[in-house]
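Cross-posting from the chemistry board since nobody answered there.

I work mostly on the small-molecule side, so proteins are not my area. We synthesized flavin-adenine dinucleotide and want a rough idea of how it might sit in this target. Sequence and SMILES are below. Is it possible to get a predicted 3D structure of the two together?
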Amino acid sequence: MNNYITIIGGGLAGSEAAYQIAKAGIKVKLYEMKPKKFSPAHSNNNLAEIVCSNSFKSNLHTNACGLLKEELRILDSLLIKIADQTAVPAGQALAVDREIFAQNVTNQIKNMPNIEIINEEIGENIHLKDLAQNGIVIIATGPLTSDALSKEIQELTGNTDLHFYDAAAPIVSKESIDMNIAFWGDRYDQERAKDEEIENWKNRIKQMKQANYINLPMNKEEYEKFWNELVHAEVVELHNFEKREIFEGCMPIEVMAKRGIDTLRFGPLKPVGFTDPRTGFRPYAVVQLRQDNTEGTIYNLVGFQTNLKFGEQKRVFSQIPGLQNADFQKYGVMHRNTYINSTKLLDNTYNFKKNNNIFFAGQITGVEGYVESISSGMVASLNAINRFKGVNEKATFSELTMIGALAKYISTENEKFQPMNANFGILPPLDEKIRDKKLRYEKLADRAIAKFPKNIDK
Ligand SMILES: Cc1cc2nc3c(=O)[nH]c(=O)nc-3n(C[C@H](O)[C@H](O)[C@H](O)COP(=O)(O)OP(=O)(O)OC[C@H]3O[C@@H](n4cnc5c(N)ncnc54)[C@H](O)[C@@H]3O)c2cc1C
């Protein structure tokens, strides 16, 4: 067994992992392909480069990403500490001076005697299987993992378990869906029920509640208004390297809508097989929502992968009857994103089930976002440390915490797995029902923080 731990990728997750491992007194070999080779989005020589927005999102306790940062501060995250030190004014958000942030992380990592940085691309002359043969490896090469390494990861995980782009539909919390408008039901089920002459209304309701989908019916006027807003809504400007990946895959809903006013009604919004229980007739169009986590607290809008700007998603999709007060836990995205099917491949310590010497960390595991990537680097490294030291106990976090809930989400079986950011919908609900959202989030956040011991050894 090697007397060090290997980390591949010196981005957000890899840098956090390197720090935690070195701090525990263990040697680290950190492979980073820059500056020899750059991904299409990276451009400077430092570790922990921030490729897009300079915001680490909200700092508020009542915001899911704010809570995650608070948890990471308790756990002595180097990257959140440096983000705090390099913050620029941004209201309630934690935004950083990206140059100073990356420079400070790089200086700190370079000055740790236990860390050796090797500027090589894994997959070219040095191969993953050789690194994993005699030691512990953390793969943290991010959403733009180089092609050579992607191939080696594909060999490791199996062809169908590595995805190259992310076409995710928005997700809303179930409690924010107006169930006076929505109805439960799977396509054709109501018709089947009629055929089978289930006349008893109570039985029918019961049967419909066992259905998998929540359906939002629209009449002609509502549909046409929605369609008109959708085709005129503002979209995100794509990077050149993302265009090919996206359009070969599934089509954004706004692009499909632009093909004609009825295209969606023959596609994802087709109403066949449904009867609106309020009218007794087939609706003009139906938006379907599918359960997105095991607890059934969050639902995704089926077929709504989109490039609309986030604000536009909220504005336009809230016009769908039943979603007028929808609480968007995650907005739809379509971009280049290399990620593995963690729900099958990893446990909740980000450990690869087929080979316990391998961990994955960062966006490649299906967590989404800067802070989320740092959080998975934290969990993976704490567990790599335990494995290195021969400690059998796993370093896991309660599912009531955001860091634990994310780890649980990516490692829980889910056929429609899509990358996930921190959001309150992935936490188990409170025992009491609290209508006021801010108060509810405050209680959820307090409950999470209470799960951490008071005096963590830093
Ligand atoms: C274009 C784009 C924009 C994004 N914008 C945002 C945003 O605004 N806000 C947000 O929260 N999240 C954003 N994300 C998502 C994500 O949070 C970031 O990509 C984040 O940097 C992921 O952290 P990571 O550590 O997993 O990967 P990265 O930070 O990308 O680090 C991976 C590192 O691995 C290196 N590497 C890759 N292949 C190899 C190899 N074969 N050998 C050695 N080294 C290798 C890379 O050079 C890189 O330094 C964006 C993603 C993309 C692609």
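Reply from a structural biologist on the board:
Welcome over. Reading the output above for you: The longest helix spans residues 370-389. The two ends are 28 Å apart (CA to CA). Happy to explain the token format if needed.
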